[in-house]
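Task 17 of the worksheet. Students: predict the tertiary structure of the chain below and write it out as structure tokens. Keep your answer in the requested format; marks are given for formatting as well as content.
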Amino acid sequence: MGTDLRVLVDGTPLLGQRTGIGRYTGSLVAELSSIVDLRLIGFTTRGWRRLRSLAPVGTRAVGPPIPARVLRTLWRHSTFPPVELLAGPARVVHGTNFVLPPSIRAGGVVTVHDLAFLDDPSLADHDLPELVRSSVRRARAVCTPTEAVADAVSIRLDVPRDRVVVTPLGVDPEWFTAVPMDSTLRVQYGLPSEYLVFVGAEGPRKGLPDLLAAHGPDLPPLVIAGPADAGRSNEVIRTGYLPDDRLRRLVAGASALVLPSRDEGFGLPALEALACGVPVVCSDIPALREITADHAVFFPHGDTAALNEALHQALADPPNPETGRAQAKTFTWQACAEKTLTAYHRAAA
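Model answer:
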């Protein structure tokens, strides 16, 4: 099976500011576009036209404008409308963002990025747990970014482990050549010459309250890059959302990147920091142990004294940057696409 395999992919995550799932979907689609006959569908009315301009070369957007909320309500109670009614026939349909559209004949693949929505209902719409459970039941293959999430999905969503395909994310090549911001950009963002960096959304799941509690005047200022508003208070600088090239330069200039998460499906910022030779301090949780392969300084999640100590350790005696870079190089979007293709073949069989 090659380019004759028609795959319909949920391209909705490509719209809006690219968060982790948007970056995953965009990079995966770009890699797969020359391997399979790829169609993108957007479950949206607002971004419907924009998806047509975002579709990578070799793919095309299909389907009518349709509000996601209406579809989710219908799919929660039935398998109507099947996705073929919206987008035409396909051999495989891939739900890239937890939810698998029902189909008549297409084999289903769904990506479950993490199970945070089960532990903290405030992180997602109230109907997501029900939609995910029905999605994994219908899917012929379930993709997860790590073995840690694969094991959790198998146990907590009652999915046979041999139906789960681990498809680790990739590190963009540009991270390996990223250079710190020059003086002009540092002035623009109000950056000191030495700083720690946190990348991601604010909130308990990512551990930011713990980091703020552990951070003090004994450490370099903390820079937070994410969707929150830009601003400065005491020794904390918020840059707001940064485009990819600026984010790479911000991380490349940091003394260390901190990822104090309560749970992670993957933890891409840790690998991206390793790629540009920056020490990583992260909570000792399964997914982060798995992807960094011990090329990080770990601390028990929730222990602010241990986090402060780990930050001092990373600054005083940082891990070897070259071994960290070598670890990051083992994660490519091509490998992610090849493993995803395994899931597609399984679904199409």
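Marker's comment: The chain has 15 helices and 14 strands. The chain has a mean pLDDT of 90.
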